[in-house]
Specification:
This protein has about 130 residues and is mainly alpha-helical. It is about 50% helix and about 10% strand. The protein has five helices and three strands; from the N terminus they run H-H-E-H-E-H-E-H. Strand 2 (about 85-90), helix 4 (about 95-105) and strand 3 (about 110) form a beta-alpha-beta unit. The longest helix is centred in the N-terminal third of the chain and has 24 residues, at about 20-45.
Length: about 130
């Protein structure tokens, strides 16, 4: 919840999920909507943009400890579905082995809690493409 408030204050449009399995479904829905709208635009040039709601998520900040499905499992599922955007893992565990495991499961980078905004922005700059 703290991240949601923080990113909203920074001007971001934020969606939030209370569990990794819900996050996976949200990403799947967004990817399907993006593909469907892209297909429609091939046939109808008059379709107007809806302010970015038809795009995939620019970045996903994924906490590791969540009920039902943890962040590492959710991250891995999203990559299997073809999500190729930035996934930032967030964890309270700073052991190098655990951070590497998160990256191995598909996170572009992993930060430890509490989130330090300077580190967050540095990750964004490194992953900006």
């Amino acid at each position: 919840k703290l991240c949601v408030k923080l990113f909203t204050r920074l001007g971001a449009d934020v969606d939030s999920a209370s569990d990794g399995s819900i996050a996976v479904e949200m990403v799947r829905d967004k990817m399907e909507m993006t593909a469907a709208i892209a297909d429609e635009r091939l046939y109808d040039n008059d379709i107007e943009s809806n302010g970015g709601k038809d795009r995939q998520y620019d970045i996903i900040v994924m906490d590791n400890i969540m009920p039902v499905m943890n962040g590492q499992d959710a991250c891995e599922q999203m990559r299997r579905m073809g999500y190729n955007g930035i996934i930032l893992g967030l964890t309270g565990n700073a052991l190098p082995k655990d951070l590497e495991e998160y990256r191995a499961r598909g996170a572009n980078a992993v930060l430890t809690k509490p989130l330090v905004m300077k580190e967050f922005f540095a990750v964004l700059q490194r992953n900006d493409s």
